[in-house]
Amino acid sequence: MLKCKKCIAAFLTVILMFCLISCGEKSENSEKDENTNLIVIGFSQPGAESAWRVALTDSVREAFTEERGYKLIYKDGQSKQDNQIRDIRTFIQQGVDYIILSPIVETGWDTVLLEAKQANIPVIICDRNVVVSNESLYTAFVGSDFKSEGEKAVAFLEEKYASSEEEINIVHIKGTLDSSAQLGRTGALEKAVLEHDNWNIIAENCGEFTKAKAREIMQNILLEVDASSIDVIYCENDEEALGVMAALNEAGIAYGKDENITIISFDGTRNALEQCLNGKINYVVECNPLQGPYLFNIIEMLSAKKTVPKITYIYENAFEQEDLSEDFIKNRKY
Length: 334
Ligand code: AHR
Description:
By secondary structure, the protein is of the alpha/beta class. It is built from eleven helices and twelve strands. Helix 2 (about 50-65) links the parallel strand 1 (about 40-45) and strand 2 (about 70-75). Alpha-L-arabinofuranose binds near residues 49, 50, 266 and 287.
């Protein structure tokens, strides 16, 4: 009996030592600081291509602060999906509590999302959406309804050119291909072109949601297309609109509210709204990057074991010159 008790004691000691060693290994490899009890969130952004995206990063950072009980690990995917997938795998290895993913493109996430699910880490998709084989691969989506954004821009054009029987020639500057922002905004325009016999897309290219790329492609378009034939330039974000305007300025081509070329933009950053107030951009459809508070609510609810909505579209507006004032723009957060 005594012998047996000794065996049990020895066995328990080995188990205890094993536990201590493995716990020690976990805190070395893990981002979790067990002493602080902070909830750890891995946040994967596709890049920092626009002022809009910087505003999204800031909004998420402001929502998940240490004072509120969170530790946020931010990763910039440098505009590559492979980097984002690698970053999510790192979060999984680190044993974070939640992952927030702003996906560069819609598809190609199934495997890594399954890995997160198997590790019991809830993933909240934000900003752009994903298309996956099984929706249980992510917990919730918070972001923009890009199709509806595109439809607002189309409605503006339909009203503006309602009485025109002439050809309406459109230059289309797309955003990052296969991102839901591009697909939604492009889809709405292409549908409208099919519905209006006199609407034509006379040039299109991808500006990658950046000012530099949009400026370059607009310079090239102007070499091939007679500027006087252009009625509309549909830019899929503010950076692209600013790049296009730079190219038009260099070429001495007038545009905007009192001219023949209508400029459409998406986002509603301060720079673009200034240009809209000045009459240079005709219509800006808002894409709201202030998503941190929405994400915060979702994660608080999940931590409280409450059911969260699968899809949350955030509120978004649209602006013409008469909707804007210097005060409004000055007080804007981004
Ligand atoms: O996904 C949102 C889009 O991505 C914004 O329109 C754009 O500025 C950003 O880069």
